Amino acid sequence: MGVLEKYFDHYVINARLKPAFFVVMPFAITTLAWCPQAQQVGGVILTFLITFGVMAFLSNLVSNKGNQLQARLFQEWGGAPTTLLLRHRDTTLDIYTTQRYHRWIAARVPGLTFPSADVETDDPHCADSVYQSATNYLREYTRDKAKYPMVYHDNVAYGFARNLLATRSYGVCVALISIVLNGVFLYFSYAGQSVREFVSDNTGMVLFGVGAAGASVILLLVFLFSLNETYVRERAVRYAKSLLATCEG
Hints:
Order of helices and strands: HHHHHHHHHHHHH
Helix content: over 70%
Radius of gyration: 24 Å
Largest sheet: none
Number of domains: 1
Number of strands: 0
Shape: elongated
């Protein structure tokens, strides 16, 4: 990661590049298991990819996929989590906290008037525009990472979750390919020998091969069953709560 830190900021590394690394992890583990010397040239390859803009392209690609997914999710959820939480009719926050946030933001943004519950019901689109404007203000208000570390870290965690889900199909494909490759390598390595003889003569290789296959299976299960929209929504709501909680200051 030291090489990446010279060229990319903390957010790009953790929210955009790490999801990409997570996707290719099964293949990376398989490569190291069957070709340990690859570890020695890993840094050189990474530097080469950075120099020729491959990592920057990968970062932008992951970000674009994440933004496309975010647009779809927000539409399915009925709006961005911050917009949802600022609505009078939403029950995630108690009504008194919601009203306190409204008053705090309204006092700091000239010309921004929050709708009442009745107005929100009569014209929900106009009300959401006010809440979106308030969110835009808060994002700029909390840009200082040192002053608002929780907001920043929750934003990074949400970005990682969103971008990882956006690239899940690639992760599934890579994991499946890695499982097959490990099976093929193990099969052709012991062809013509008894299993006992092969394991006895190649204990290290068997352990690494089986370990790589097992890791690929675990990562495949993670992509298929643990990584879903619920996971992303939980991170999104947590970020929204952290952002809105700055109104308590």
